[in-house]
UniProtKB/TrEMBL annotation, chains A, B, C, D:
A Pfam cross-reference name: FMN_red
Signal peptide: none
Record-annotated NADPH-dependent FMN reductase-like domain positions: 1-138
Entry protein name: NAD(P)H-dependent oxidoreductase
GO molecular function, one term: oxidoreductase activity
Transmembrane segments: none
InterPro entries: Flavoprotein-like_sf, FMN_Rdtase-like_dom, NAD(P)H-dep_FMN_reductase
Keywords: Flavoprotein, FMN, Oxidoreductase
């Protein structure tokens, strides 16, 4: 089982990334094998054929479970995260990957965004998006119970999907 | 394993219902145990507490897999189907149910509707919505390969989820 | 100028309807000419050709501005409201009507629903949906400033559209 | 009246940009004053404070009408376009700007994307998004009537909004 976290925050080493790590571990009981901080990929994201980008895409495509984490910009995921997702093959780029949409925001008003906006992109790439989108408040997620509640509700589904892979 | 089809077409015994049956069988290898043609529930849907509606909700909540099938009205699912879904408990009404969103339309222009619009409602009810929304063309679905392609792509996921239940 | 409020709450004379009236008046400076409490239309909504339903549709289609108000059920508008909207002609049923999407909910988590889910239905019916979806908290909307802020921001746009009709 | 076209295609001088120009002219009767091919802004888009990016944002914010044009990547707008939109102030960055969502795709299956996905981002930035999202087939848009039909349907609304500004 390979577990990966993708964080699409323009700020490196963000809370977004931290929350993604925590969620991946809470869902599987294991620390992430790979963490891709998309901003580190730099200008290679703006075109096609960059070697580092290609490797990052391969890591994600070959994972069992990937948490895709984004801050909320303009009521949806960041352009930076989408730039990375645009590098995957449509329909098959996430085939067989349990793909978990996670967004963080300052307040509760955008809580529907991971379900209505981020999950459909992962689904379009062929991911197995069996879990609902999770939205966390960025100032309280390390203390409130939202992440743990979600993980305890959905980790059996993750286990069933990975066992049945 | 209990398999149910819910059809939200104001016309009884519609192609919507037929497509739902075919999809349920193609995904599981078994005919549906229950078929709920929502229009048969009649005016009891307009309020709360109708006995037939309650029984239909219970049947759905207790199923292993449910195909929710709707024609496309105004670029989304019907009011009739939503009236029935409004009778379920938020967050838990579809807990543990593999919930499959299916829509039929006259042309391809509304193909994103099951993924972007119907699936989130099933997800809000707590359903396990691991499969992407399926959209079929109502005049050709018995002849084209869309339903069979989808079933062969996603039946292993259904099997893993039901085995892991 | 004809102003109409449509309320899609299964409970008659609801806060949904009250909020719709207030919004229509705040946007135009005039009380609503017509108020359609969809639940009053009853079982005629479940089929086609009911005379009262037809008249209600005509009233809406012939209005200059209509507020479409719904409580939040399962993270979106009610089946009852959609049942009524299903009675309009696709693409033209709201042609020339400034169509304002309004939803009320118990908490802030579903605040994106009027913009992402209700507005597209009105747009599919051909409405002029120039205003963003408005979401109000049902327990505080008579005291907080959300409705007034929205009305002062958007009433000039309403005036321009109605003058240019 | 200042008219601007923004094109978010990673390929410079794309059909996306051409379609945006045609639409802006068809809606207003005038050629675009400014054309922003987002890809030309380069790596400055990946952070904050780039001078060329700032100028492009100002041009857009100060326009009367802006067509935001994107090819369809993964069933929605491009990461490149979103990267540019992320540079605007939330709620006010497009205040007073008639903002028109346009997407091009290879086939009809993603036709709901401009309405359901691109328009809400423009709306979140405070734009006046009175026109429905337009979706064009990239191989036929210069010959089919979709663009002209849309322009003749909606140019009076554009005129009313700009006169009432």
């Amino acid at each position: 089982m390979t577990i990966t976290v993708v964080a699409g925050n323009p700020k490196p080493a963000s809370r977004t990334l931290d929350a993604g790590r925590r969620l991946a571990e809470a869902l599987t009981g294991l620390p992430a094998d790979h963490v891709i901080d998309v901003v580190d990929l730099g200008p290679g994201l703006l075109g096609w054929g960059d070697e580092d980008v290609r490797r990052a895409v391969e890591t994600v495509s070959g994972s069992s479970l990937v948490v895709f984490a984004s801050p909320t910009f303009k009521a949806t995921y960041t352009g930076l995260l989408k730039l990375f997702l645009d590098q995957f093959a449509g329909g098959t780029g996430l085939a067989g990957v349990v793909s978990v949409p996670l967004m963080l925001g300052a307040g509760p008003g955008h809580a529907l965004a991971p379900e209505l906006l981020l999950k459909p992109v992962l689904s379009e790439l062929g991911g197995t998006c069996a879990l609902p989108g999770l939205y966390l408040i960025d100032s309280t997620y390390t203390e409130d119970s939202a992440l743990a509640d979600y993980a305890s509700r959905w980790s059996p589904t993750v286990a069933a999907l990975i066992a049945g892979r």
